[in-house]
Protein 1
Amino acid sequence: MLLFLHWVGFSVWLGAQLTFMVWGPQTRAASLEAWAHAWKTLAKVQGYIIAPAAAVATITGIVLTMRMVSGHADETTPLLLMQGFGLVAGVLAVAVVTPLANRVAMYAQLGLAAGQKDPRAEKARVTLAWAASLTGVLILLALWFGAHTPAIPL
């Protein structure tokens, strides 16, 4: 069950995170209202889908690690790399990317109320793009090393 939750967690996490790669750049050319609503929606995707999925994947990964039988030190290097990249990605997704997405959404709401884009929104959006991109790369690295991990009994 834990392995299933782990796979579902990182699959949903990565899949939903790809939404940002499509919608984020598209908002630059959008009208103020479309821009604001897109970022408010993306913040909800981050908060309601990505952050919980990242938390599930990270927590189940930690539990699976703790349940792993010792004595397989020679075979565990890819597994340890998967765990390291996954843990850092999970922490970034929950502790950095989610607050940044909420900040951009807040600036979008303020800009909508003021009738123009809040100048702080672009700086927060760029920071969010870098942090989310780094998280995505770390997830892919974790998946790469996970795919190259020999079967170890849990």
Note: Residues 16 and 22 are 10 Å apart (CA to CA).
Protein 2
Amino acid sequence: MTMHAVRKQILQILKEEGDATVAELAKALEMAPVSVRHHLDLLQGDNLIAVDRVRRKGSVGRPQQVYGLTPEANEYFPDNFAGLAGKLVLQMKEYLPAEQVDQAFAAIARQIAEELPVDELPDAELSTRLAAVADFLNERGYLSRWEQVVGENGGAYFLLHKHNCPYASVSQEHSEICCMDQKLVDELVGTHCERVQSMRDEERCCTYRVAAESAANASIAPIELVFTS
């Protein structure tokens, strides 16, 4: 993410110090307070900082606002989650039998799927269910959408697209991540969905085909996860 150098410095100062006033930031940046306030206003508008509290020196004078980082600001600081996740998957595959690795990823998919309150949609039409699934996936960074398609024979079916993979840097090396996502989609939709294209195969998105007659509340038969290298 690109950001103005001064605003990036402000975030770094707040990260190191915990919080700071306009005067303290102006001193650290060697800038006029009015200029600092301009950058603070922009950072507040982006929900990256917030006024944590008010500080008063003595019994006279105006109280000073103390600024701190919001949780959203953490996205602007480096992390190595992908590297750590990749190493964890590698260690799982090295020390666990293949069957246990499969079970572990299937369990992760089920655990994530349980966060969708499907009990509120037991009798919903499939289109309503897919809309809820797409929203659920979007909250987790998948850039998902769905559409209804009419085939050449007049039969209708649905397509669920995922335009982003939050685990792309790991899934390229470990196909287990793609199989976990397959299981996740199946659990969320309520039936097995055929993956017709995959970003791992250099397609522009992962797409799942859902038969129009699929019942949203159908029970899912056990799915055999087959991992390919």
Note: Residues 5-76 form a domain with the Arc Repressor Mutant, subunit A fold (CATH 1.10.10.10).
Protein 3
Amino acid sequence: MINNPDQKPKTEKEKKGDFIRYIGIASTVGINMVASTFVGFALGYWVIDKYLNSHPWFTIILTFLGIVAGFRHLFRIAQKAGEKNDDQ
């Protein structure tokens, strides 16, 4: 739907470019979810719990914080995408 009558419809090339951009964003979100969870786990397990001998508490806490960081990134990406759709 075109809100602005002066705005031209997108060409096939522009639609394909948008699709590729969205695929890139989706893959970035997936990679970020896994990476942030792994970093939280690794810091908790191999760095803090190993040296403080407080197994498994910091592993659980930092893994949870890594998951929260991944979802925070996901929500920021979704919010930016929503703002771009509202502008168009």
Note: Helices lie at 12-52, 57-87.
